[in-house]
Every structure is written in structure tokens, then in C-alpha cells.
Amino acid sequence: MDLQLLVCPFCGGKVRSRWSPWIDGESCWKIEHIDYEAAVAAKCPLEMGGYRDLEELSAAWNERKLEMAFDSFDRIELQRSFNRIAIAIDCHNAIKERKAHALERITDVTSRIQSSANGFGDR
Length: 123
Ligand SMILES: [Zn+2]
Description:
Blueprint: E1 15-19, E2 29-33, H1 36-41, H2 54-62, H3 66-71, H4 75-122
Antiparallel strand pairs: 1-2
Bound molecules: zinc ion (ZN).
């Protein structure tokens, strides 16, 4: 049977099932890292032992890698969201530019009106 197993929630390593019956013959399936050395190098708490105290143990066990949260996203949906944000930023910048341009023209026209009004006042 070809199992589809998610990556390890701690180190992101690939895992596989392993048949490992108890001494008395009772059925027991285990999960193990395919690349054990890499999991140990990544300090995966599933493969670690020898913690000095419970504080160290719980810190190791309770730490979840941030990248793992991103891995759980659907990448295509994430890409679409990024594209939408990029388009929104483009639109925002274009509007800002047009506003700045319009403001420039208004300022220009206003100053011309003022200077011609001042011209009338001089008469
Ligand atoms: Zn792991």
C-alpha cells in the first residue's frame, strides 16, 4: 500500500511507515523519518532525546517552524493572492500618479488665475 503521508510537522522531513511489532507480537506501525540523519541535524524533537530537563524538552517539542505554516498553504492560491496584491498596488500607484498630476495642473491653473487677478488689481 502506497501511503501518502504529510511531512513531519517539526522539521519538514519526509516520513514513512514502519512495521515494528511489540515484543509480544502485538501489531504496531510506527512513523519514521526517511532521512534520519537530516532529522537529527535539524534537531527534530521526534528523533531527539537526552534533554537536560522538562523545560528544554517542552521548548524543543512545542517549537513549530514558521516555514511549515507556509507549506500548508496551497501554493497556487498563494500565488494568485500575491498577483492580486501586486495588481492592487499597481492600480493604487497609477491613481496616486494621476492624482499628483491633476494636483499639479490645479496648482498651475490656480497660480495663473491668481497672478492675472493680481494683474487686475494693479490697474
Ligand atoms: Zn521531524
